[in-house]
Specification:
single chain, alpha+beta, Phosphorylase Kinase, domain 1, 2 helices, 3 strands, 47% helix
Length: 101
């Protein structure tokens, strides 16, 4: 959600330039179709949710996925996660030392 509480989404599809190279097109199409299949059945708090998929063949120009949009990069999310978990890891390591002594 953005500041107004509206949901934000990302549309994911293959670039039309991928069609210029058969191998790249096939690889990209297969990977996008597999991603759609996984996201359709997997539910986990650390994975984005797929909200919609085009009613078309993965090989069509009009094939796309609609995914939740995350307002940060993976690098920033990992950094934030490390900052959050750092205190927990110190606490756990200190507890382990106390129980082994």
């Amino acid at each position: 959600c953005d500041a107004d509480g509206d949901h934000m989404y990302a549309v994911k599809k293959l670039d039309k330039k991928c069609r210029l190279n058969r191998d790249i097109f096939l690889k990209g199409t297969i990977e996008l179709a597999i991603e759609a299949r996984f996201l359709a059945v997997i539910e986990h708090p650390h994975l984005i949710k797929m909200r919609a998929v085009a009613n078309a063949s993965p090989f069509d120009d009009d094939y796309f996925l609609v995914l939740e949009h995350i307002n940060e990069t993976l690098e920033r999310r990992i950094t934030r996660w490390k900052e959050t978990c750092h205190g927990y890891s110190l606490f756990i390591s200190q507890m382990k030392k106390k129980t082994t002594n």
